[in-house]
Amino acid sequence: MFDGIEQQILNHLEAHSIVRPRDLLRAGIATAPLTALVRRGAVIRVGRGLYMLPDAGVTEHHSLAVAASAVPHGVVCLLSALRFHELGTQNPHQVWIAIHRQSRRPVFRQPALACVRFSGPALELGIEEHVIEGVVVRVYSAAKSVVDCFRYRNKLGLDVAIEALKDFLGRGGSPDQLWKTACACRAARVIQPYIEALL
Fold first, then answer.
1. What domain range is 14 assigned to?
2. Which of 160, 121, 161 is nearest to 140 (CA)?
3. Is 173 a domain residue?
4. Are 97 and 114 in contact (CB under 8 A)?
5. Residues 70-76: what's their mean pLDDT?
6. CA distance 79 to 84
7. What pLDDT score does 64 carry?
8. DSSP characters for 1-67?
9. Which of 27, 75, 121, 151 has the most other CB atoms within 10 Å of its CB?
10. Residue 101 belongs to what H/E stretch?
């Protein structure tokens, strides 16, 4: 049996899947019983300051939900965003997160994070919000993800960017949207020859 506060924590976890102690405090729920709940196996710790129920429904994008809970101001980008949008064949072993150029780099072990620093339109443009396991996850749009791969082609490889572009266009992605995004992110000159070759 669980006491009143423990039951409130469990109810909150049922509704939100992954929570941080500060989420509980915002909801007016004391966090002290968390340790006891973990010890009893009623709650599991999935990362530093992140908790969930042991029988919570885990989806294929679980790592994105955990990363978004740990870095709520970050945006899923590059290889992780391509995977989310099912573009290309990349299956990254870490979650790629864009953070503001002046933000402190998050310290997080599981899942492993690959942080890149964006600013201005490159950071703000093309953000979509998706709910995964009850967590709001910010992910760049498919067009923005393709453009970012061209911007980071030296780090990821040009073949990755071209594969993503082919998939995007092959699935009916809008060349106009791609071009506008590339212009806003100052990547138009880089991506233009590849768009022209594929259209």
1. 4-52
2. 121
3. yes
4. yes
5. 91
6. 9
7. 93
8. ---HHHHHHHHHHHHHSSB-HHHHHHTT---TTHHHHHHTTSSEEEETTEEE-TT----TTHHHHHH
9. 75
10. none
